[in-house]
Structure formats: structure tokens, C-alpha cells
Amino acid sequence: MPEPILPPLAPGEVIRIGPTAGTGTPTGDYGVGATDLCAFMEFPTEVLQVCGDSFAGQGVGFGGHYSPIALRVDTSSVDESTGVTYCGVIGVWAPLLAEPTPPGASQLPAGVVQINRQNYLLVTTAENLVPRSSRLVKAEPMHGNWQTVPGSVRQASYQGGGQSQISGFYDPIPTAESPRRWVYIVADDFDRTHPVVLYRSTPENFIDRSTWQGWAAGPGGGWKKSPTPLWGDQIGEMS
User: Fold this and answer.
1) Given 96, 115, 147, which residue is the final one in a domain?
2) Which terminal residue of the chain, N or C, has fewer Cβ atoms less than 10 Å from its own Cβ?
3) Residue 163: closest CA among 172, 171, 154
């Protein structure tokens, strides 16, 4: 698979390559004119771009409404200076998720965690962008009808309302506490009402959200504590 053409960025540096969400993107080739809240998933042979509220027309409310969808990224375009292009879509003609969207709500991609080449998507159900619940979904690159991980559904109030948006990293280096290594998860609320906190989990227990171990700062802190903010700012979307 091609690698990105840009070198690592300096702290605070931003370079615009090309649009991957919003309007005026190549998604229009597949009946999607506007997208929002996109997250990328890398699989051994392909890349999916999962987007939340998406519309057939060039703007919110124009044409059919789909939420969420998964665009198949043309991997040969990853190193193109103008941005990525696409070679297909899942979720326009048939649902991407097995569970239907409740009336008046949206199902939004709210974080991706990859463990041993298996991608898990946190899906947050929201009404008017206010989270109502969240759950883990097991991503399957070849088809839609992605299934909810049993037992992973949580109401928006879970953990004080601060777990409707996540980002995670699987560290393959074993430790004495976890011979099979750790998955580290940062979490907040994508409506920007909570600060970012840190959890960890063993890879075999990641899908059981009740086993995530919080990290706390200060005297008496550490792992297996009620998590404390990593910093004071309230953060929304993460990747």
C-alpha cells in the first residue's frame, strides 16, 4: 500500500492536502455530495473512510440522508498530492450497520481502535448532536450489516457522560502486568462537554467496556482509578 508523501509535521504545523469531508469531494462519484464526521480504518488490503451524517446533495438536508456510510478509498491515491479518491461505498443502498437508526437520530462514527488487524468502531447515537448512547461495532471491510459487539452498549450517562468519543492505540510491547500488551484509549464527549481522560485494557478484554482501567493523576493516582482529566480543556472530535 502506498505511504503518505509528506514527512512528519512539526508541532503545531498544518498542511492541507485535499478535502476528505464536507462538499466538493470525489464522494460525489458515488451518490454522496456532502459528508461529516469521517474516520479512517486501515485493513490489510484496503482503507475505509467511515462518515456520519451524509447527504446526496451538496449540503446538509439536500437529497437522501445516510448515516453512517463507509467509502472505499482508492489506495493508489494515498500518495497523491491532491488527496484521496474512492472506488466504492457501503451504506447508501443498504445499511452499513445491522442496527437501524432510531427515528429522529443519527448514528455517528465516534472512534476507531485496531487490535491485531481487527477494527472496532465506536458508534454514538445522537439526537440533534446530543449523545444518547454508544456501542462498539465490529467492522467488516467486505460488506455492510456490521454487528454490534454484545454487551457493549452504554447510555450517554456512562462514566459521567465522558465516553461518547474515543481514540485508541494498541501497544504491542508486553509488560509484567499484561503479557499480551495493552490497548490505550482516550475518551471524551464529542459535544465538547467533557475533558479527555485515559483508559487502558488488555486486548482480549477491550470489547468489555466495564474492564477499561482509568488513569488518575496526583498522589494516590495511577491505573485502576476513577480517571482524571489529562488537561483542563474540553475536547470534541478526536482521531
Assistant:
1) 96
2) C
3) 154
